Amino acid sequence: MDSITCIKKPITTELEDFRDLFDSSLSSSNALLDSVIAYIRQRNGKMMRPILVLLVARLYGEIRPSTLHAAVSLELLHTASLVHDDVVDESTERRGQLSVNAVFNNKVSVLTGDYLLATSLVHAGLTKSHDIIQVVSSLGQDLAEGELLQLSNVSNHSFSEKVYFDVIRKKTAALFAACTKAAAYSVEVGEEDTEFARLLGEYIGICFQIKDDIFDYFDSKEIGKPTGNDMLEGKLTLPALYVLNATQDARIREIAFKIKEGTASMEEIACLISFTKENGGIEYAIQTMNAYKQKALDLLSILPDSEVRVALETYLDYVVDREK
């Protein structure tokens, strides 16, 4: 049995229910909006975040309609943030496919993102849970704050791992934590179990983002973004931050400042990537990612043996071992 099949096994029926609800939420009578949404749906991935919502809910009991609406709400909010991010970052590609703003334009992209966000809030309301509505609303704030923190850090002439983790906690980790926390709320578990679920999601999200950042140091069409794409946007991630602080190499630090300012050449970006690889940056990032994976596994080890626990452990393996 491959890992994705193992992950989905405890929630096969409910995942189909989710897909039906998600698809119906995106129907529109507006021809332009419908064509943009159809384009977005072409690149629907493995739905790892909704799967996490369903698995955590199943961990505590039966999946309810509120669970499905929470999963749809969070996936729509996530999709809206990606559409908006591509406009902000002036990206023309996402996961090997042209971005919405590249195919249509910025105005259409922003308005489509707004529509997805509004639909997300509709489904949050349909959970009839004040707690889940609060989770979705707070996530929207966190994602925006994370983007602004990342933008402000570009002009900051320090190479801080703390700021790096502040950004990914506000962005990726907050999204995964919202998935697991909303799942717990949807099946009405107690405060201790809800916090357990939230923390599990946060650790998974940190692992997910570090893995994504590692991809940026390698050239692969499978990954769907060119090498050094983050650096082209002025972003220095964990592998580079480690070597910049560990080596204190003046020439490399000068290149890093130019990357932050957006004035570095492709040759200079390639130089920092090579330097990072040669000086243990990738190994350090992998070690850090595995430390957070172990924290998540330690949480899961408290649970009794079950098909859902195995699925969640396999989910963690997939996040860390995936190739794109």
Automatic annotation (TrEMBL):
Keywords, in A-Z order: Magnesium, Metal-binding, Transferase
InterPro entries hit by this protein: Isoprenoid_synthase_dom_sf, Polyprenyl_synt, Polyprenyl_synt_CS
PANTHER family cross-referenced by the UniProt entry: ALL TRANS-POLYPRENYL-DIPHOSPHATE SYNTHASE PDSS1, GERANYLGERANYL PYROPHOSPHATE SYNTHASE
Organism of origin: Bacteroides faecichinchillae
Family listed: Belongs to the FPP/GGPP synthase family.
A single MF term (Gene Ontology): prenyltransferase activity
One Pfam match: polyprenyl_synt
Name of the protein described by the UniProt record: Octaprenyl-diphosphate synthase
Swiss-Prot/TrEMBL cofactor(s): Mg(2+)
